[in-house]
Write a structure and sequence with these properties.
By secondary structure, this protein is α+β, with helices and mostly antiparallel strands. The chain has three domains: 7-68; 111-301, Nucleotide cyclase, GGDEF domain (Alpha-Beta Plaits, 2-Layer Sandwich), CATH 3.30.70; 307-347, no CATH class. The chain has nine helices and ten strands. It has helices at residues 7-22, 27-87, 92-99, 124-129, 133-153, 178-205, 241-252, 262-268, 325-347; strands at residues 108-121, 157-162, 165-170, 214-229, 234-239, 258-261, 272-276, 291-297, 307-311, 314-318. Strands 1, 2, 3, 4, 5, 6, 7 and 8 form an eight-stranded mixed sheet that branches. A two-stranded antiparallel sheet has the order 9-10. Helix 1 packs antiparallel against helix 2 and helix 5 runs antiparallel to helix 6. The radius of gyration is 38 Å and the shape is elongated. The chain starts with 6 loop residues before the first helix and ends with a helix.
């Protein structure tokens, strides 16, 4: 840095070097050099003190940063734990819409076309009287857990559990359109009926001798859905006559029956077989409501089931109901590449 910050010091050193080289040190030159070195010593000490203070400040700031990072890490861990716990109280779709910022957490609702589902265990009150509290708790939780797995796998928004009853709906906060939502809902109901049959075998092992049989009611229509309650306590749910009708269909269904309304039948008639059931009178509806029992999939126009496979090196999830034409084209283009990969692995 010649000519810069140390210009005076460099000049002083030059005088000293020249004097040494000339071997001529007089008293005046000696005094000049001595004063210069004293000044340089003072400046050096001042710089050392400043450096020490800066180093101490940097160490302090570094320590504070470490402590801050540890605090933030701890807070993030707490938030993640709380988030996981909170997710247990919300349907996955609702949880995602809230924490992704898609939905505001405020009192408010919208009118949307939903397919609403209700189910309960037939004669559950009588069953509870025959079971010990511990067995009752285990069996009910096992049942609700299995039903939740089926519901979530089909894309349902689980609204609530009311004892042994389940309320769920399709169409909010995510929707595939009225027809696909209705088809998904009926498919889910049939899957639940089959799952309960399998579950009864396991429940029998823990002392539940009377099998669980469920009945389901499904209706489609315009509902009011959103956050209801106060600013301090909200409940995300759907209300309205169409919801009430779905509940009434469930209570009117027989053992192991999936009972649906005319509206739902019209949306799903290409995919399922039905039998006309009795008309029911429901409060809020001027005319009797036609009901239909779902007897199974329409073999002629059966719905392709989801293709799902997950293992090391392969993650595959295909839902035919939402598969676009572009996606179908891409899959067909990938098949020859897949065959080459498989053939190459065989050769190796």
């Amino acid at each position: 840095m010649s000519g810069g910050l140390f210009k005076q010091e460099e000049a002083l050193l030059k005088i000293a070097k020249d004097s040494v080289a000339a071997k001529s040190f007089d008293s005046e030159q000696y005094q000049v050099l001595l004063k210069g070195y004293e000044k340089l010593l003072k400046q050096t000490r001042r710089l050392v003190k400043m450096s020490d203070r800066n180093e101490a400040e940097l160490n302090r700031m570094s320590k504070e940063q470490v402590e801050l990072n540890q605090t933030l890490s701890g807070q993030n861990t707490k938030l993640e734990t709380l988030s996981v716990k909170l997710s247990k109280y919300l349907s996955p779709q609702v949880y995602e819409s809230i924490f992704s910022g898609k939905s505001e957490v405020r009192v408010g609702a919208d009118r949307k076309y939903l397919t609403v589902f209700f189910s309960d265990i037939v004669s559950f009150t009588e069953i509870t009287d025959q079971l010990e509290p511990e067995i009752l708790t285990r069996s009910l939780n096992a049942y609700l857990n299995e039903m939740a797995v089926v519901a979530i796998s089909h894309g349902a928004t689980i609204d609530k559990y009311i004892g042994d009853s389940i309320m769920a709906f399709f169409g909010d906060p995510e929707t595939l359109g009225p027809q696909h939502d209705a088809v998904k809902c009926v498919t889910m109901a049939l899957s639940m009926q089959e799952k309960v049959k399998q579950l009864n075998y396991e429940l029998n092992k823990i002392g539940v001798t009377r099998p669980f049989n469920i009945r389901c009611g499904i209706n489609s229509g315009i509902c009011t859905v959103g956050n209801f309650g106060s600013e301090n306590r909200l409940d995300y749910t759907a209300i309205g006559n169409q919801v009430n009708l779905a509940s009434r269909l469930e209570s009117s269904a027989g053992v192991g029956e999936v009972l649906i309304s005319e509206e739902t039948r019209l949306l799903t008639q290409e995919h399922f077989d039905f039998e006309l059931n009795q008309e029911i009178h429901v409060k809020g509806f001027a005319r009797p409501i036609k009901t239909y029992t779902v007897t199974g999939m329409n073999e002629a126009k059966d719905i392709p089931s989801n293709l799902s496979y997950h293992s090391k090196g392969l993650d595959l999830e295909i839902d035919p109901l939402v598969l676009s034409e572009d996606s179908k084209k891409t899959i067909l283009e990938l098949i020859p590449q897949l065959e080459k990969i498989i053939q190459s692995n065989k050769n190796n």
